[in-house]
TrEMBL record:
Organism: Aporhodopirellula rubra
NCBIfam families, per database record: RicT_YaaT_fam
GO cellular component: cytoplasm
Protein name stated in the entry: Cell fate regulator YaaT (PSP1 superfamily)
Superkingdom, natural source: Bacteria
The PSP1 C-terminal domain, residue ranges: 77-162
InterPro entries: PSP1-like (IPR047767), PSP1_C (IPR007557)
Length: 297
């Protein structure tokens, strides 16, 4: 009689066949959901087959619904194996060739007179393609360049035009905080950042202090902006006329994190009070709208 599998063995087989992990790969720190036939842990280096080809990736976490929901346009693929010594040796050789690859591409760009600046060249472990990253002010017709580079590399060439922030992602090392720049360490998408965010957080408005390695406003200005905006919406805007235990006052300034207000009293004194002392907002001033006009002690 054929042997039958135990329930625990069947359950284990089902779990193994449905394993999925979020992996980070490529120079641009792409995030993808990769299927696997064995278990992995955070930080494991693996070889994957992505939509681009065979390449090296780092396992970040299991692909739970919550994790996948937080990824914008995740790619799909599968984990082939753990990274072994042979893979490391091959990848080390490819990494050393990057500088030579750039030097190989530059003469062709100059020969064709293309208004573009080459930033980086990325090879895949499997050799399926070579990705050339460049910056340019407008659209570039690089079809002739692709043909020339295809003869040089003897593989598929992919030209990828990137922005200033992406350039920093590829080339920058450390920021003013002493940490590795966020775009290189963990950001997969560049969030929009505005001067409004710096003003709300009382950051210095000196461009040299709030600009990142890319020359644009620092991405970290966005991290706490939603919290500041939420807290600010609970406070009467500057210029509001309010009723407090000390009588009628006008809001002169806000201390958002402390939840306090600098107010001017009717006898022209400037004092600081907690927001909980506001009994009623008599007239809303200009600024961030409040969610309610009345507060109870």
């Amino acid at each position: 009689m054929p042997s039958s599998s135990s329930p625990s063995e069947n359950q284990s087989a089902i779990e193994q066949s449905s394993l999925e992990y979020v992996c980070r790969y490529g120079s641009m720190r792409h995030l993808g959901v990769m299927t696997a036939k064995q278990r992995f842990r955070y930080g494991d280096e693996v070889v994957i087959h992505s939509d681009r080809g065979t390449e090296i990736a780092t396992v970040l976490c299991e692909a739970t619904p919550a994790a996948v929901e937080g990824i914008l346009e995740p790619t799909e693929g599968r984990i082939l194996r753990r990274l072994d010594s042979t893979d490391r040796g091959d990848w080390s050789q490819m990494s050393e060739m990057t500088r030579r690859d750039l030097d190989m591409c530059q003469p062709h760009v100059e020969k064709l007179g293309l208004p573009m600046q080459l930033i980086d060249v990325e090879r895949l472990l499997g050799g399926e393609r070579v990705i050339v990253y460049f910056v340019a002010e407008g659209r570039i017709d690089f079809r002739a360049l692709v043909k020339l580079l295809g003869r040089e590399f003897q593989t598929r060439i992919e030209m990828r035009q990137i922005g200033i922030r992406d350039e920093a992602k590829l080339l920058a090392d450390f920021g003013d905080c002493g940490q590795e720049v966020c775009c290189s360490r963990f950001l997969s998408k560049m969030p929009p950042v505005s001067m409004k965010m710096a003003k709300l957080q009382r950051a210095s408005l000196d461009p040299s202090k709030i600009s990142g390695r890319c020359g644009r406003l620092k991405c970290c200005l966005r991290y706490e902006f939603d919290t500041y905006e939420s807290l600010a919406s609970e406070l009467p805007p500057v210029g509001s006329k309010i009723l407090t235990r000390d009588g009628n006052c006008r809001v002169a300034a806000q201390d958002i994190l402390a939840g306090q207000l600098v107010v001017t009293t009717e006898d022209k004194r400037r004092i600081m009070i907690p927001a909980s002392d506001v009994i009623e907002i008599l007239k809303v001033g200009e600024g961030t709208p409040v969610r309610g006009k009345k507060r109870k002690k």
